[in-house]
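Deliverable D2.4 — example input (structure tokens):
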């Protein structure tokens, strides 16, 4: 009789365990309301019923029935999904001494070397650095405020109206452009003076100079051997190499007056006949 009771008890325990295991479809740690096969509530702040809020799941870890993992996210849409309501969603990658073949295609690592560091991925044969194309400099500016230039005086062209400066590399007040990186840059500038007397044998010159007044590039236009009235104008287009941090500014010099000064042909209203003649464009290649 005792043997029968013992056997019956073991059978009961076995059946109970089988039924209980079959009905247990989710395991929760720190929560009694698991939303996946395996769900950890880091701060134990989830509601006992219903779906937790975005703020509550920000500290959760979940494994779904599809085998997908969510961190701070209970509805992963990829094999591993770290997107959450939190702003602290960065992934930390370390380095490795494994070869690309040993790590396998698709593996990633943080690689530090003398002079810099890169993110790299394995193509199965070699580690390949991931390069991000930088935002290239692009400047467009016009002169829209009255400006008078003295004769036979090297004068920096400043007080520009900035229309575009993607990399914040241009100072419109001073006319100074600072190269954001080593590279090739194209400069285009047009200047036009108001109508007035031009003495024979005179010229106008425009150039880009650095902070030490050294010339990077320049162009000169002469006016022949006869005096006359004209609108002195000049244009320059040039492509030059600049080192990171190099500063250049447009400068003008003219001799068609022996003394005094002459105004540039400027109008704040670009639809007026005198508007739109004095322009600057800088493009990084």
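Example output (designed residues):
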């Amino acid at each position: 009789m005792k043997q029968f009771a013992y056997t019956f008890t073991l059978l009961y325990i076995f059946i109970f365990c089988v039924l209980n295991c079959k009905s247990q479809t989710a395991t929760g740690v720190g929560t009694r309301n698991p939303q996946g096969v395996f769900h950890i509530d880091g701060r134990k702040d989830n509601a006992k019923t219903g779906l937790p809020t975005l703020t509550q799941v920000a500290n959760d870890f979940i494994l779904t029935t599809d085998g997908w993992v969510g961190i701070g996210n209970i509805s992963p849409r990829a094999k591993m999904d770290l997107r959450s309501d939190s702003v602290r969603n960065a992934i930390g990658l370390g380095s490795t001494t494994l070869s690309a073949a040993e790590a396998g295609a698709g593996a990633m690592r943080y690689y530090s070397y003398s002079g810099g560091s890169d993110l790299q991925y394995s193509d199965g044969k070699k580690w390949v650095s991931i390069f991000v194309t930088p935002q290239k400099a692009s400047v467009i500016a016009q002169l829209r405020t009255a400006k008078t230039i003295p004769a036979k005086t090297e004068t920096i062209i400043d007080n520009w109206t900035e229309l575009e400066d993607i990399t914040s590399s241009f100072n419109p007040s001073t006319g100074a452009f600072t190269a954001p990186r080593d590279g090739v840059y194209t400069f285009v500038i047009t200047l036009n003076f108001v109508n007035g007397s031009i003495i024979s044998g005179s010229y106008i010159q425009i150039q880009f100079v650095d902070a030490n007044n050294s010339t990077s590039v320049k162009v000169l236009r002469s006016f022949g051997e006869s005096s006359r009235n004209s609108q002195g104008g000049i244009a320059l287009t040039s492509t030059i190499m600049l080192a990171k941090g190099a500063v250049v500014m447009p400068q003008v010099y003219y001799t068609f007056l022996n003394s005094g000064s002459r105004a540039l042909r400027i109008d704040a209203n670009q639809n007026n006949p005198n508007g739109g003649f004095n322009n600057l464009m800088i493009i990084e290649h």
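The first helix runs from residue 2 to 23.
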